[in-house]
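Example record

The entry below shows one chain as it appears in the dataset: sequence first, then structure tokens.
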Amino acid sequence: MSDSGSQTLRRGEAAADGTDAPLMRVIDSALHDAKRQGATSAEAAVSRGQGMSVSVRLGDVETVEYNRDKSLGISVYIGHRTGSASTSDFSDAAIRDTVRAACTIAKNMAEDPYNGLADVERLATEFPELDLYHPWDPSMDTALELATRTEDAARGADSRITNSEGGSVSSHSGTHVYANSLGFCGAVHSTSHSISCAVVASSQAGMQRDYWYSTARDAAELEAPEQVGEIAAQRSVRRLDARQLGTRQAPVVYEAPVAGSLLSHLVSAVRGSNLYRKATFLLDHIGQPVFADWVRIHEQPHLPKASGSAAFDSEGVATQARDLVSAGVLQGYVLDSYSARKLGLATTGNAGGAHNLTFESGPLHLPALLQQMGEGLLVTELIGFGVNTLTGDYSRGAAGFWVENGVIQYPVEEITVAGNLKQMFRNIAAVGADQDRRGNIRSGSILIEDMTIAGA
């Protein structure tokens, strides 16, 4: 089902099967043209990918899609002025025109002393094997059969499943090459595959929808189609006959699939662009306690097969494992080269974002976490985006379950959970062992001791 192997290359190297050679020629041509047209330095990224996706609904084929895409993006620097342009045409003439457009933009931009390539000493020189490339090429019939099995499992799991948004299967593989005029050139081959399903459950009180999905670099590690479908059905049925809550203060558990959103707000608050604009509630908080003293949140950029793994960031800077929060204390920011220079600091290798940001798990799985909470709200869905990074004020629509004596009592909907992120972070009492590892942020369920729940 899979063919293991991934590569990261430096200038002068090429994939053993020669598949990178055309992309290397494109990127070399772009950088050469940039120099010829007057750029003092330049960087370029070229990518090529292909994939397929199918979906079925109520037993019938809904969509069959095949895609092939490619792109070239180049940024040039003329002194401290910069311009960028992109194209999907790899012909020599199109590359020259794209570079010319970038140079024209740069010549008309104001000088910014913080512009420029990453510092050469920070560029990656070691490339660990990350095992990101596992091509899978199922036939259309095979993919449709998997999607059908997924939906059939969901529709057959409970008589209250009355409708379906479908079962889907997708597969994608691609190559991304980044290079700059400092001599760095790296290529990464990667794959991503998924199975998903969404269904509707009905009762006399109304209808509820939920979904489930499985994603992996290696198709052999996907959850079975029947498991994906059954979980989607269970999640839909359990939401039937939901009630509203009156406004109150209570503890809240964020279920693992939505708990990662709290870490995304942390990343936003310590991102360089918000820091130099002074648009964050965590300004100047390095070395200060932000969470309870047991909390550890760290980057793991070199995990094999993980979705956020990378040997270098989008500027070619080496990634490294590091603690963002240790013993509850904020240890660092999330910086690219530009924001680091603006702040008088060094890049953290986070151009393009964090890499497998992980909230270190505690010993309790979700049922035990609910027992620890006793009475409160289990949030399983978040709606809207009411988060102010400057003040930390937080207010989001939610749905989930009311819990008493550590046991789910009934589903709830049309409620809002609110607080301030600074206080919410300090009030995190536990993180579960049920870590959701499907995305770039990896967290178990999170228990917050006290929040405002606004309802009817």
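Notes for this example: The first helix runs from residue 21 to 36. DSSP finds nine helices and 17 strands in the chain.
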